[in-house]
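Model it.
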Amino acid sequence: MGGRGVLFAVEEGDGARLLGAVDDTGVMAVVEEVEERWERGWLVELDKAWDALHRCLTDGTLTYDGGEYPLSHAILGGYLLHEGDEYVVSYATPDEVRAVAAALARLDAEWVRGRFEVLEFVEYDGTAGEDDIAYTQAFLPDLRDFYRCAADAGRAVIFTVDP
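Modeled.
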């Protein structure tokens, strides 16, 4: 998956509509509304670093169920709401967001470097070299801040990426 990933902290109403959607069309309609609002205070752009970050936070794989909770729920984990040829949407509940925020608060750039050293990134498009590690590390502070703010506000989080 080479697309650009974005996390959105959604209000309770949007979360309820997402969980209540009866099909992919309904999910995507809500996601499009959230994306169109583009509320800077309630999103974090991960660009293409989301792939390496997810692998670091889990077991090195690019799967929905790899790794251990709560870090496994930071990006692709949680509830998979939509997986299509053109889009992926996953959802973390407000309780999961609080758990993720607490777990992320303990991580720093050296932790990310250590994950690159101990994990095998199967079918990874990056290089896992110094530039790749630095690029991935650069997104961690914003990811931590985003989850802290979302947790403090009691919001759910959706991750979107166009593969």
